[in-house]
Specification:
Radius of gyration: 25 Å
CATH superfamily of the largest domain: Aldehyde Dehydrogenase, Chain A, domain 1
Helix content: 40-55%
CATH architecture of the largest domain: 3-Layer(aba) Sandwich
Largest sheet: 7 strands, mixed
Strand content: 15-25%
Structural class: alpha/beta
Distance between the termini: 59 Å
Strand order of the largest sheet: 10-13-14-9-8-15-16
Shape: globular
Number of strands: 18
Length: about 450
Amino acid sequence: MNIDKIIEDQRSFFNNGNTLTLKFRIDALNKLKESILYYENDIYTALDKDLNKSRLESYLTEIQMVLSEIKLTTKKLKRWMKPKRVSPGILNFPSKALIKPDPYGVALIISPWNYPFQLLFSPLVGAIAGGNTVLLKPSEISVATTEVSEKIIKRAFDPEYIAVLTGGVEVTTQLLSNKTDYIFFTGSTPVGKIVATAAARHLTPFTLELGGKSPCIIDKEVNLNRAVKRIVWGKLLNGGQTCVAPDYIYIHKDIKKTFIQKFIQFTTEFYGDNPISSNNYCKIISENHFKRLVNLLDDGQIVYGGESNKESLKINPTLIENCSDDSPIMVNEIFGPIFPIKTFENIEEVPVYIRKQGKPLALYIFSKNRKNIEYILNRTTSGGVSINDTISHLIPHDLPFGGVGESGNGAYHGYESFNTFTHSKSILKKGDFDPKLKFPPYSNEHKTIKLFKKFF
């Protein structure tokens, strides 16, 4: 695999203007859809092998989200590509001003292992729509899904347009050392810093989709039954290996005991008395991640769960309390089915603690009290928020998804994906007329300045 040659070929393909037309981009999106559907059963098999993910969960959280992006994009791309007229200002009379969305060129997409299909192909839809050529670097950890992803791309596209580059850290390092025109990275914050540093060497624009400690706040005034049901679903989806999974519970002290009871109730309802044995419960992606999570169980007092099976790489849903704020479980993103519980007495405590944790990718508030909801919203910063639900803010195409600060920068989904992979080029077309005062030698300067101050 000659990475330098692939990048050179893609740059040549782009520079020849092949990707510029609406027809080319729509055709590419349709080819992508056809290839995904051709390998649909292989995708299910791969996700089951990598994560023990059920067929329905695989469809809803991986395949459907990509197909939905393709459907929306093909429907609206003509409108998105159209240059937008804006006011040129009276000083430029007569003239016309436009904002034209221009493709960047060669885009590099680096995806993670936790949603190995969706997080590779969703940004690809935006990159195609934007008129770029694309280098895809899937995770080497989700081996089976990476293999089928490569088949999908090879069936639909020549590598001079879209290429999959497989391998470990050495391949990613080589890709980042080369100059590309845009980088889209999804993964951990530490690796995100490495990507940002590499991008800075070439002044390459980039998007970072990272993570963080996404708090799940439960107010005293709440429909606890509904709240816990939605929390259990959001936390345990994909075995807790979701970048926007609720990371820890921050609950009013008076309802903690009832919360624990209901958490056990709904976990049992969803996955049985022993979730490890459930076919609907995902496994941990690798032995290294399994060991890391098992070690976190020593950071507090387990009140529910804690059992694990090394052979199946599964850990039962776990509630844990009395964790010190400086322990690894309360400092680092958990990324697994372990749920620390922290309590508060007054709502004023909540944003103070959350701000100490940095700016999370997601924030969840469960409350009937509008004032308390607004209080938290106005005093915290996060990539996104779901009120009285978890994960659901990812679903609407018209809601940009992305982080802020430590949880990332930039956003995508729907139009925002197209916007991410295009540069807004400002264009001014001037008419024939020029006022005399535009050119030197200047006269009556004092009078001219007064005129400008009065009217402009």
